[in-house]
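Lab notebook, bench 4. Still working through the backlog of constructs that have no structural model yet. Next entry is a single chain of 171 residues. Request: give me the structure tokens for it.
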Amino acid sequence: EGYWLRTTANGELCFDCNQAMPVEALNMPAQTLSLGSTTQFFLSDRLGYEQTLYLMSDTESSPNESEMVKQFSLPPLPMPGSFDIRFENDSRLTTTDETTILLQGINYPLKINVHNLPTDDHMGYVIKEMDGDQEIASHELIENQTVVIGRNDLTHLLLFRASLVPIEFNV
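Model written out:
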């Protein structure tokens, strides 16, 4: 077992729980991010391991975008075979409309539920199952509907925004 800490400046790290905390530290404002309207992806595998990923669209982005992504950063990848799901930026938050979801140690099937999808006219999100550069399958994401991925040879998923209205019509 180990612990991972992200720091933002040089300083001391004290593990003595009997020491009193300095007054300055007690008065520091907490930095929080409201996730109320943020798109949430709930991913879980057959053994019950789960991860929640967040998508903050361009309309929700703020000037402190990089700081918000840091709040959701993850430690380095665990040992091979250990469960891990993350965006390619090593975070649980992405602010781009096209990104890769990295998969490791998944016990398939993998279930994906999405909440708070943006409701732009004729636009939506799609997930592609990928094995290297080869697309295996594609799934349109629909609010509160489960996508089930059963293949166990996937290397990653592609998440992207796409037009959900057909460009061509056949008669």
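Notes after review: The chain has a mean pLDDT of 83. The beta strands are 39-44, 50-55, 84-87, 93-94, 98-104, 110-115, 123-131, 134-140, 147-149, 156-163. Flag for follow-up if needed.
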